[in-house]
Amino acid sequence: MANPNNPELEPLSRTQILVFMGITAIFLLAIAKIWQKLGAVQLLSIQFNYQALLWSVGLAVAITINSGIIYRVWPAYRRSADMYLELVIKPLMWTDLIWLGLLPGLSEELLFRGVMLPALGLNIAAVALSSILFGVLHLSGVGQWPYVVWATIVGFALGYCALVTGNLLVPVVAHIITNLVSGLLWKINNRQTTSEQ
């Protein structure tokens, strides 16, 4: 049965979403490792420290707040985000949100910020190109262009912070927190709708 909000997308089961997330994470990690080996790319450093944690939390809060603002003022983005989040998060159980945070947060950041940024020159042009590719990764249908625009902006923020700090941990933790918070907020805001079905 087709999704009434978007005839392009079929509703997925919890298992399908989890398998898709796992396969995507493995695929992105494999690309990152192959690129790193074949291109002799030095992975962006990972430094565990208090400053990195502050950067990560601050970035995650900024992304979450701005996402909420854009959601309220840009109707096309709201429709796009609702469709994407309903497709991805609705079938998941609350505990599955941990995987929603960890799998994309680790694999996408390893590829787009950890390997791609250094491989492309570790400069603002590399941040811009990796952000566009990151945005395109989030394209799930023709009507999803507003979500792709937002993902590109988020990718730029994550990449810029990685460039400024020189620490891959910052975008990884920020990405994980952002995914967890957005998943939790969507589940909370749509609790009645999903329990009534």
From TrEMBL:
Residues 93-181 form the CAAX prenyl protease 2/Lysostaphin resistance protein A-like domain. Keywords: Hydrolase, Membrane, Metalloprotease, Protease, Transmembrane, Transmembrane helix. GO terms for biological process: CAAX-box protein maturation. Pfam families: Rce1-like (PF02517). One of its GO terms (molecular function) is metallopeptidase activity. The chain crosses the membrane at residues 12-31, 52-71, 83-103, 115-141, 147-170. InterPro entries: Rce1/LyrA-like_dom. PANTHER family: CAAX AMINO TERMINAL PROTEASE, CAAX AMINO TERMINAL PROTEASE FAMILY PROTEIN. This is CPBP family intramembrane metalloprotease. The lineage of its organism: Bacteria, Bacillati, Cyanobacteriota, Cyanophyceae, Pleurocapsales.
